[in-house]
Amino acid sequence: MIIKIYPQNPNETAVERVAEVLRHDGVIVYPTDSVYAFGCALRSHKAVERIRAIKGKKATEMAIVCSDLSNIADYARVDTPVFKLLKRNLPGPFTFVLNASKKVPDKLLSGRKTIGVRIPDNAIPVEIVRAFGEPLLTTSVKDDDQVIEYTTDPELIYERYGKLVDLVIDGGYGNNEPSTVVDCSAGEPEIIRQGIGELVD
Fold first, then answer.
1. Is 15 left (phi over 0), alpha (psi -120 to 50) or beta?
2. Per residue in 81-106, pLDDT tens?
3. What are the chain's domains?
4. Which of 32, 80, 191, 200 is deepest in the core (most CB within 10 A)?
């Protein structure tokens, strides 16, 4: 199934329909402010395993999408300097690597103690998280070695993944450049992947 949602004014009924898919262990593809991404409920082991099966060995790079800064504090430990950095740069095309709190399921961390956190500058995922009531687990449709049109065009994404996921959201063309990844887990922030976002210190 593919549905159109406009980022300028996400339709409430359509957003609730997406949230309902997530409540039933569904897997979605949705737009961000960088590349399109797979998403599912954070606590749905079944849906997480489906995403891992789709992505294969590259499924280790998972993050969570939150709706706002207070939402982040529930799932990651954030001290004052890091909070100020997040506040200056979010919403935006960044993934901040933070120390995970106990609210993040152990199975998701796979032995790690950190979690990537996003608040995209795109109303569609933010409204989905609000309607759903908790963060989305997320990983990019695009891999670092791909510069392929199907990762930016929702119609082509649907052609490729429509039978593997429950819902593809057409939010217009996406970018082909991923988010900038900033590791804040060990004190001084460190950019470990430069993407579309330019960090404001």
1. alpha
2. 999 999 999 999 999 999 988 888 77
3. 2-193 (3.90.870.10)
4. 32
